[in-house]
Model the fold of this input.
Amino acid sequence: MRAVRQDQAPRRGREHEFEAQPGLPEALPADEHILWQGQPGAALVARRIFHLPLLGLYFAGLLVWRLAVLLQGGASWLEALRGSLGLVLLAAVALGILAVLARLTATTTVYTLTDKRVVMRIGIVLTITLNLPLRQLRGADLLVHADGHGDVSLALAGDKKKGASATKINKTRPRRPDRDQGAINSLREVQ
Done:
């Protein structure tokens, strides 16, 4: 994974000016140091979390179906295209809103690994910061995808009833709600 250099801090919007350091709610203690800090890629969030390509295919299928129904009903190509314009506009608005949400999600999320904890700042409107002490983690798995990006799964140690459960936070491992694992999703250039 690519570490953030001092001159290349995560993007900080106006809503995070109060942070002592980008991605951290307060200054680190003197005996704690940042080992890695990063953010998810907006295009990766759009593709892997919001599933924009699949939604685009879904809307394309609806458009083909709409055109076929109109053409089979005796409409000309021009009439069929005019009759499908509403669907095209609806698809464009829906995909546009999700693309903006993906961008906002990526730019407001910061993951920080120190020598004592993992800190996740997440949230678009209501920002929360999750502190996961390394002693409460059982392990971590890295999944590297073919295009070079990856996801890190954090397995929480301890009893689900006593400790902080990953399912209480919204950064759980995708498609694995039965396991107590947090997730650091859609990282660019993992190695």
About this structure: The longest strand covers residues 137-144. Residues 45-105 form one domain. The chain has a mean pLDDT of 82.
